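Form 7-S
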Amino acid sequence: QLQLVESGGGLVQPGGSLRLSCAASGFTLDYYAIGWFRQAPGKEREGVSCISSSGSITKYADSVKGRFTISRDNAKTTVFLQMNSLKPEDTAVYYCAAAYRTIYSGGYYSASCVGMDYWGKGTLVTVSP
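Output:
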């Protein structure tokens, strides 16, 4: 069973930056598309950013475009979410999720945030003065 572990959350002032990490336990992420999602208190979970298994295709929610950057390391063991110019409305629990997508099964170059198979337990990001 693939397990995902998020880290890097915390308290930051508006305008500040944080870098979230998503690592797989016992597996590499070679053939997994990875997504970052968030859920604020009283709100539904929303997709923030996703990256294809290939690493070449990315997708961002309009609310974070130009501020957040998703990337994966060359060894494909960790996926990062660099968050800059943070706003109070970015406060939420951030989750990473994975979907198995290979060339043979289709979707290797897809950054769709739909259809994730595995989820982490989340890391809290609080943006406050």
